[in-house]
Design goal:
CATH architecture: Beta Barrel
CATH topology: OB fold (Dihydrolipoamide Acetyltransferase, E2P)
Helix content: under 10%
Radius of gyration: 17 Å
Shape: globular
Number of domains: 1
Strand content: 35-45%
Structural class: mainly beta
Strand order of the largest sheet: 3-2-1-4-5
Length: 142
Amino acid sequence: MPIVDLDFGSLTPRDGEYDVVCTKVDVLTKKNSTDKYMKFWFDITGPEFEGNGLEDIKSLLPQSRKFLAAYLEGLTGRPYDQDGMAIDTDELVGCDARAVVITEEYEGVKQSRIKRLYQAPSDKPYPQIEKDQYGSFFDSGK
């Protein structure tokens, strides 16, 4: 019988920055609650792990709106700083951004998570993101 060597470690993006495109956005309601949140799906478009998917959620609770505003601004390049603003989630699909991706463990499973989105010129180099001894992320400049 042939033996197939499988290496799934390369499926999870390492901590770093990646170009991404938003492929889907839904507004959902938490189980056993009326609290709503937005769920985002992204595909990595470069420079590594092209085609790998990432998912992220952002709460729609009033106390979380500043985080959502920063996230949407990073995704679209437009400010979201006025009361009474609305957005058509279909307009977010197809938006390109640069994502700072970190790996965290949740209930014993390692997951890639988007820490931040921002608009970056295509010629901007990718920083080397590393974790210091306190768990903070920084650009090592390597």
